[in-house]
């Protein structure tokens, strides 16, 4: 039996979180028997689709309809439901994301499926179907038992090791029949607020706090971010004062990020800020106060003045 994985794309490139979802599904298929079929929607190059094989997909169903390039939620849910039926799947795996959440919620109803989000580990299928998931913004774990026939598992970003050793996946064209009504809510244009990299999806984030003293110093944050290919973020007071736009505010009341690397500069590490970043894989803290609480959550810490450390760090990255 196949496990179906819903793949998300951005401008024709498959998102890393979707490859993680495939790796998770492959490990589940190896445990339970069966194989992994992915479903991809919109214009994506065949070669890009075949690459999903390295993460563990045996086959990709490609719905090559440019109307699906934008994440039109109803249309994506309808197309994935048809793929689920075609492969006779009982389990759908996807990446936890804003689009993934919206699609998964609709599919849970359509497929009469139990849905577990923020999954961090393979289900224990020995007795019952227990799934481990992250709760309270990453501070604790819970086990949820699923008793439905159909199951949807939304995998948390960075929780799964990405598999990269499989052969190319077979790509198959898949025609779906979509009613015009599923395109009723249209994204007519998108406007990127700042930077080239979107904060919620960034793999690296460089964030500044009140320790940066003022907006005129943000070039130091931006220079490091540029060298690292990172998005920029900030603490809440920084956006409240107007040094940075509100959509860059990270934390409990702002954007929750889960990058591979989060660099916090001149941020104290208040619990409300940590709530937005503690799903990061590695945290680097730069703060002149060795007692700053952020150091307790850090993988690496630099005790020093941001105005001295940042230029040196940027130069060091540039030299790599
Ligand atoms: P500060 O606490 O002022 O810390 C500045 C840090 O910079 C200090 O640690 C200092 O040692 C360091 N520093 C100073 N100068 C330098 C220098 N030259 N070089 C290096 N380091 C230096 N906050 C959020 O960020 N996100 C949220 O979502 C959020 N939600 C909240 C919700 C509620 C209900 C409440 C009550 C608060 C919330 N807060 C949130 C605010 C939070 O409690 C903290 O006040 C805030 O995170 C502190 O921001 P900061 O670390 O930038 O500033």
UniProtKB/TrEMBL annotation:
Name of a matching Pfam family: ETF
Domain Electron transfer flavoprotein alpha/beta-subunit N-terminal: from-to ranges: 3-187
Binding site for FAD: 210, 266-273, 287
GO BP field: fatty acid beta-oxidation using acyl-CoA dehydrogenase
Keyword check for Secreted: no
Keywords: Electron transport, FAD, Flavoprotein, Transport
Entry GO MF terms: electron transfer activity; flavin adenine dinucleotide binding
Domain of life of the native organism: Bacteria
InterPro entries cross-referenced by the UniProt entry: DHS-like_NAD/FAD-binding_dom, ETF_a/b_N, ETF_a/FixB, ETF_asu_C, Rossmann-like_a/b/a_fold
Cofactor dependence: FAD
Note on cofactor: Binds 1 FAD per dimer.
Listed SMART domains: ETF (SM00893)
Membership in a protein family: Belongs to the ETF alpha-subunit/FixB family.
PANTHER family associated with the record: ELECTRON TRANSFER FLAVOPROTEIN ALPHA, ELECTRON TRANSFER FLAVOPROTEIN SUBUNIT ALPHA, MITOCHONDRIAL
Protein name, UniProt field: Electron transfer flavoprotein subunit alpha/FixB family protein
Organism: Litoribacter ruber
């Amino acid at each position: 039996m196949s496990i179906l994985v819903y793949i998300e794309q951005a401008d024709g490139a498959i998102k890393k979180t979707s490859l993680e979802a495939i790796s998770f599904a492959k490990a589940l298929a190896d445990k339970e028997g069966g194989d992994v079929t992915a479903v991809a929607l919109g214009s994506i190059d065949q070669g890009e689709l075949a690459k999903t094989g390295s993460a563990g997909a045996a086959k990709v169903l490609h719905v090559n309809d440019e109307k699906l390039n934008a994440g039109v939620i109803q249309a994506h849910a309808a197309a994935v439901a048809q793929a689920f039926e075609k492969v006779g799947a009982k389990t759908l795996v996807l990446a936890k994301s804003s689009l993934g959440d919206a699609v998964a919620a609709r599919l849970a109803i359509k497929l009469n499926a139990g849905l577990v989000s923020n999954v961090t580990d393979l289900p224990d299928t020995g007795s019952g179907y227990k799934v481990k998931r992250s709760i309270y913004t990453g501070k604790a774990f819970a086990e949820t038992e699923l008793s439905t026939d159909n199951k949807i598992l939304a995998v948390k970003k960075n929780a799964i090791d990405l598999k990269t050793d499989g052969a190319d996946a077979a790509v198959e064209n898949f025609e779906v029949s979509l009613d015009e009504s599923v395109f009723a809510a249209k994204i007519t244009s998108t406007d990127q607020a700042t930077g080239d990299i979107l904060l919620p999806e960034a793999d690296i984030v460089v964030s500044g706090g009140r320790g940066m003293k003022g907006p005129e110093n943000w070039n130091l944050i931006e220079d490091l971010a540029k060298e690292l290919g990172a998005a920029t973020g900030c603490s809440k007071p920084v956006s409240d004062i107007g040094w940075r736009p509100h959509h860059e505010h990270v934390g409990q009341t702002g954007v929750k990020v889960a990058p591979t690397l989060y660099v916090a500069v001149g941020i104290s590490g208040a619990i409300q800020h940590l709530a937005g970043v503690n799903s990061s894989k590695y945290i680097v803290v730069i703060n002149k106060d060795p007692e700053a609480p952020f150091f307790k959550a850090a993988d690496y810490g630099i005790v020093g003045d941001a105005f001295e450390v940042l230029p040196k760090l940027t130069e060091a990255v540039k030299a790599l």
